[in-house]
Every structure is written in structure tokens, then in C-alpha cells.
Design goal:
Strand order of the largest sheet: 6-7-8-9-10
Distance between the termini: 47 Å
Radius of gyration: 22 Å
Oligomer: single chain
Order of helices and strands: HEEHHEHHEEEHHEEEHEH
Number of strands: 10
Structural class: alpha+beta
Helix content: 25-40%
Mean pLDDT: 91
Length: about 260
């Protein structure tokens, strides 16, 4: 039957630094996953559930021949380049967290073969590559709060290069030294990152609590707050709560956002 690590007969130790190390059973499950004997699906609450691979991955997928490491790297680089459109080599290599030296060699092979085009980008001091399917959209109408692990901001160097957006996840920063908050979400509106929001989902109260809302330099605060309120409506629906509430007082957007919250009641 499917099994979560907490259901092992030797669960993770509950004392020591970070509750001690992983149990031997958890290490064994991780090894079986790495060698392809078991697979992982997600249960609610971010719980990993291990099961036999054939009960997770369809037969037709498992029957596909296993590529060599070199060809696997090439295919992952192709997919990364397609997703990014135009990118520096470091952006493409990092997209799937590939080992840097061999991945850069494979990327050079794709450029040499004509699958990707070497280009320069105005304002960048790095060479770039262009995927042949990349297109310039007529309009970008994004209005969303991004996860810290979203590809738009996951590779911090690219986020800063594209959006002039310096971003650090501060969950491991002591509270007194945090600049924006524990778990801050960048706010993308149109083709710019114009703000960031510190908040937390309260599943017991079915509410998303907002502790801080900040505007980036040059952003129109009223327009940004209005868009952030709409994005919060979407986020509340996505995480399965009934709504959101401003409970903090930090940031330039907190009061404009509070007014939008009141208007929605």
C-alpha cells in the first residue's frame, strides 16, 4: 500500500537539532525513489506518499528507453530554452538544476547544431541564446502573486537582470533582521514586478492574512494596490480559503490595500 515517511515503524527522531536526522526507513525510501523502484505523489499538507512506480507512472512512459546522461541533459536544456525564450547560459542550465560544466558543454553543442541561436541582449553583459519558437507577445496582462519558487524569480540572477528585482527568501533570516518578512511573494503586473507581499494562509480560519505590502521603486501605489487586491482574491481561491484580510502595518501599499479590502466587504 502507499506509504508516507511518518507512517514508518521508525519515524524521524523528535529531538536534537532540527529533530535529529532522518530515520533509516526514510533513507531507504529515498534511495528506492532515486533508483526508480518507487515513485512519489503528494497528499494534502505537502506530505510525500511513496508507492510502487507502476502505480504512479503509466506503462507507456516506463517502456520508453532510458536516454544517456548526455542526451538527457540536451533534452532538458531544449525544454528550458523553450520555456525561457531568450536567456543567458546560466539561466538555462539552472532551470533544471543541471551540473554546470557538462550542461554548458551540451548547450554549446545545441548552438553548434543550430537548435538554438547565439544572440546578444541590450543591457546584458552576458551572451545569450534564443529558442527558435520564441515570440514577442502583443501584450502581457499578468496580475499575480508569484511563489518564491516560480521560474520567473527562482533563479535570482535572471530576475534581477530582467526586472531589476533583488529578491531574497528570508525564512532563515532572524526575524529582527528581515527586511520584508518571513515568506514574501513577488507581485507581477503586466511585464514588471511592481511589489511584494508578506502573508500567511490560516487554514483553520479559512483566511489569508496579510502582514506587509511593499511597492517597488517607480510603481504607482494606487494602481499596484488595486492589482494586488485582485491577485489576493485569486490567491485565496487557489489556496482554498474564503478570503483575505490586512492585519499588518508594514509597507507603502498596506493602507491602500486595506481600503480595497474594506471596499470588497
Amino acid at each position: 500500500r502507499p506509504l508516507a515517511p511518518a507512517e514508518l515503524v521508525d519515524p524521524r527522531p523528535r529531538d536534537g537539532a532540527w529533530w535529529g536526522d532522518r530515520s533509516e526507513g526514510a533513507i531507504a525510501l529515498d534511495w528506492l525513489f532515486r533508483v526508480g523502484e518507487v515513485g512519489i505523489r503528494r497528499r494534502p499538507g505537502f506530505v510525500k506518499e511513496f508507492d510502487l512506480l507502476e502505480r504512479i507512472v503509466p506503462d507507456e512512459i516506463r517502456a520508453v528507453p532510458t536516454p544517456s546522461e548526455e542526451e538527457a541533459h540536451r533534452e532538458l536544456l531544449r525544454r528550458a530554452a523553450r520555456s525561457l525564450g531568450v536567456a543567458a547560459a546560466a539561466d538555462i542550465v539552472d532551470y533544471h538544476r543541471l551540473p554546470k560544466r557538462p550542461a554548458r558543454e551540451r548547450l554549446a553543442e545545441l548552438v553548434e547544431a543550430g537548435e538554438l541561436e547565439a544572440v546578444s541582449v541590450e543591457g546584458w553583459d552576458l551572451p545569450a541564446v534564443l529558442h527558435p519558437e520564441a515570440t514577442l507577445p502583443r501584450a502581457i496582462e499578468a496580475c499575480t502573486l508569484l511563489s518564491p519558487f516560480d521560474p520567473v524569480v527562482w533563479f535570482r540572477e535572471r530576475g534581477e537582470r530582467l526586472f531589476d528585482f533583488a529578491y531574497k527568501l528570508e525564512i532563515y533570516t532572524p526575524a529582527a533582521k528581515r527586511k520584508f518578512g518571513y515568506y514574501v511573494l513577488p507581485f507581477l503586473m503586466g511585464d514588471r514586478i511592481v511589489g511584494r507581499l508578506d502573508g500567511k494562509t490560516d487554514r483553520r480560519e479559512r483566511l489569508f492574512r496579510v502582514f506587509g505590502a511593499f511597492a517597488e521603486t517607480g510603481a504607482d501605489r494606487d494602481v499596484t494596490a488595486e492589482g494586488m487586491a485582485r491577485a489576493l482574491d485569486d490567491l485565496a481561491t487557489f489556496v482554498g480559503v474564503d478570503g483575505w484580510r490586512v492585519e499588518g502595518n508594514r509597507g507603502e501599499l498596506i493602507e491602500p490595500l486595506r481600503r480595497h479590502e474594506s471596499a470588497c466587504r
